[in-house]
Amino acid sequence: MSMADLRAGLIGLGMMGRHHARNLRAIDGVQLVGVADAMGDPHGVAGDLEIKKSIDELIQVGLDYCVVAAPTVYHDEIGTKLAEAGVHALIEKPLAKDTASAKGLAELFKAKGLVGAVGHIERYNPALQNLRKRLEAGELGDLYQVATRRQGPFPNRIADVGVIKDLGSHDIDLTAWVTQRDYELVAARSMFKSGRQYEDMVSATCQLSGGLMSNHLVNWLTPTKERLCIVTGEKGMFVADTLTADLTFYGNGLQVDTWDGLAQFRGVSEGDVTRFAIAKPEPLRTEHENFRDAVLGKDADIVTLEQGARVVQVCEAMIESSKTNEFIKIS
Questions:
Q1: In what order do the strands lie in the sheet with 212-219?
Q2: How many Å is the maximal CA-CA distance in the chain?
Q3: Distances in Å between the alpha carbon of 291 and those of 23, 88, 114, 115?
Q4: CB 135 within 8 A of CB 210
Q5: Is the pLDDT score of 259 beyond 70?
Q6: Cα–Cα distance between 208 and 255 in angstroms, integer?
Q7: What stretches of 27-70 adopt beta strand conformation (E)?
Q8: How far apart are CA 228 and CA 199, in angstroms?
Q9: Mind giving me the DSSP string for 174-240?
């Protein structure tokens, strides 16, 4: 460890914590100096580090920043203690169990002048990183709609939230980020098909700023995995597949009226299809490198706590809309 290395801690050694530990050990300029989990170390990631029992014990190790991969219900308490101790934090999504707690954390980190980020890993998927650059460059012209599909089997990990906060949160963040728009109106239908207390299926229709509409299908009741983000606009359609990190563009064809029957039709026609060759670094590695750079005060693309709080707010609007049959306004 060099003198300049950032001292990083990790609380939560479960499914995600295991991957965080691997990346904290792999990136330059960072040393993993402490880990904590009240439940122990099921995946054996601690190495020669003593496993602390609580966030209080972990803070005593002396940290520049901490990754929080404990269950969502503890994020508020852990995040608050880290902020009070002057420790920067990368907190797994969803940021907190409810909008009030999430906004509270965002305000606290801001007041303390600390870097806080949320682990919305999909934003770092190479296909979506590439798509954002292309949309920003105007390759689609005016944006019309975004449709996301995130469907698959039930994940074999403890779910302390339903499918909206667990999985839908990914699509809410990536849609707002890739289009650089904000959610304004949210409507949703949800289902409870597997006897759990939380919803396991949702279909949502939303409006984002600038009149953009979005549609999100999310469930964990599907026997095959699907993770798609489809953006349609004036010049064609992009399809980002975040399972394979592929990005494909379907261009609108040039209209040629060959016979009278078609001459009446002035819509779009099929054009060229392009699959882009893009580099495919591991999204979690990219997320960690960006957070490290943010802590060092460099230019970095992190999911801010404010953005993370907005995602929780949109999730809760979906849950609310499902109960009330109303469109919910996002203030």
A1: 270-276, 246-252, 236-241, 226-233, 143-151, 212-219, 201-208, 183-191, 328-329
A2: 79
A3: 12, 10, 12, 8
A4: no
A5: no
A6: 31
A7: 30-36, 51-52, 65-68
A8: 21
A9: HHHHHHT--EEEEEEEEE--SS-SS--EEEEEEEEGGGEEEEEEEES--SS-EEEEEEEETTEEEEE
**Nearest Cα residue to 322 out of 191, 196, 188:** 188
3-state secondary structure of 104: helix
Mean pLDDT score of the chain: 94
AA letter at 197: Q
For 121-145, how does the pLDDT look when each residue is reduced to its tens digit (9 = 90+)?
999 999 999 999 999 999 999 999 9
**Are 150 and 201 a contacting pair, CB within 8 Å?**
no
Percent of the chain exceeding pLDDT 90 equals 89
pTM (two decimals):
0.93
Residue 100 to residues 274, 306, 309, 320, Cα–Cα distance (Å):
44, 12, 8, 15
Q: Name which of 127, 58, 107 is nearest 87 in CA terms.
A: 58
Please give the class, per CATH, of domain 6-120+285-303.
alpha beta
Between CA 147 and CA 136 the distance in angstroms is 18
Class of the CATH domain delimited by 123-280+312-329: alpha beta
What tokens were used for 27? Answer: 């990136």
pLDDT tier for residue 159 given thresholds of 50, 70 and 90: low
Neighbour count for residue 141 (Cβ, 10 Å): 12
Distance CA 73, CA 163 (A): 16
The owner of tokens 């606009």 is 233
Is residue 162 within 8 Å of 233, Cβ to Cβ?
A: no
The domains of the chain are located at: 6-120+285-303, 123-280+312-329
